[in-house]
Structure formats: C-alpha cells, structure tokens
Amino acid sequence: MITAIVLIKTSVDRIPEIAEQIASLDSVSEVFSVTGTYDLIAMVRVRQHEDLADVIPGRISKIPGVEATDTHVAFRTYSQHDLEAAFAIGLDA
C-alpha cells in the first residue's frame, strides 16, 4: 500500500464543500482542514504508484475550487501502536 500526503490550497469560501468531495473519493482515507499555508490535507492510499496519477491530478486537482496541490509520498508508516510494539520486543511484560 502506498500512502501519499496531499497538501491542498483551495478557495477559502468553499473549504467544507471541497473537503467533502475529496473525502468521498475511493482512495482518500481522511481529509483534514488545517491552519497554515494549505487549507486541507488529504491522506491518499493506493496499491501502485501509477494510481496516484488517477487520484491526485486526475480527480483531486479537477475539483472546482482546488487551486494547487503538493504531494508527499511516504517511505514508511509509523504509528503509536507500531512504536510501542517495536520497543516492547524482548521485554517481559
């Protein structure tokens, strides 16, 4: 599974509608409304790198009101659960 973090600039007056449209896409697992340079952050999960082209420039960028995207592809995923399991290796509970 390939995870991409997509930073999205939008028309400020349409953030909720745009977020809902992005969240409804099959490969999008979460959409966050955030402060800072970008308005939204979308988590995109696909099986192949080529699928990113279908989702990001093919769908997200074509939503009316999306002005720009900046995509970051994850090398590895770390979660609190994963980190706790890694540090517990070899320890008796």
From TrEMBL:
Transmembrane segments: none
Residue span(s) of domain Transcription regulator AsnC/Lrp ligand binding: 6-77
GO MF: sequence-specific DNA binding
GO aspect biological process, one term: response to amino acid
Protein name in the entry: AsnC family transcriptional regulator
Coiled-coil blocks: none
Source organism: Streptomyces nodosus
GO CC, alphabetical: cytosol
PANTHER family to which the protein is assigned, alphabetical: LEUCINE-RESPONSIVE REGULATORY PROTEIN (PTHR30154), TRANSCRIPTIONAL REGULATOR AZLB (PTHR30154:SF34)
